[in-house]
């Protein structure tokens, strides 16, 4: 398994965990749910330790995800663009120009142009 593949697998795992952590959290501002009458059913307070853990884990997972994405850039397989462009340049430079005779365009006359 290459390093790049390992980074991709880790990125997928961290992204999945981040989605799960975010889905577990309760909305704090009410937002859209309060406009539909759901704001009154939210309990004030709650377990502070759980909220703190979810907040810290969200920030930690998001920082880890960002770091993995940046590190995967260095592990990505490089494509040598110089070889590709040199092949194209060689093809353009080595092409043969063929002389083709130019035929005169046929003129068409219509009834309106004659009158």
From TrEMBL:
Domain of life here? Bacteria
Q: Where is the composition biased (Low complexity)?
A: 99-115
**Which GO annotations describe the biological process of this protein?**
intracellular protein transmembrane transport; protein secretion; protein transport by the Sec complex
Q: Name one GO cellular component term.
A: plasma membrane
Q: How does it sit in the membrane?
A: Multi-pass membrane protein
- Keyword check for Transmembrane helix: yes
- Region Disordered, as annotated, extends over 90-115
Residue ranges spanning the membrane: these are 6-24, 58-76
Among the GO molecular function terms of this UniProt record, one is:
protein-transporting ATPase activity
Q: What keywords are assigned to this protein? A: Cell membrane, Membrane, Protein transport, Translocation, Transmembrane, Transmembrane helix, Transport
Entry's localization field: Cell membrane
The entry assigns this protein to a family as follows: Belongs to the SecG family.
PANTHER family, per the entry = PROTEIN-EXPORT MEMBRANE PROTEIN SECG
Outline what the protein does: Involved in protein export. Participates in an early event of protein translocation.
| NCBIfam families hit by this protein | secG
Q: What is this protein called?
A: Protein-export membrane protein SecG
User: Source taxonomy lineage?
Assistant: Bacteria, Pseudomonadati, Bacteroidota, Flavobacteriia, Flavobacteriales
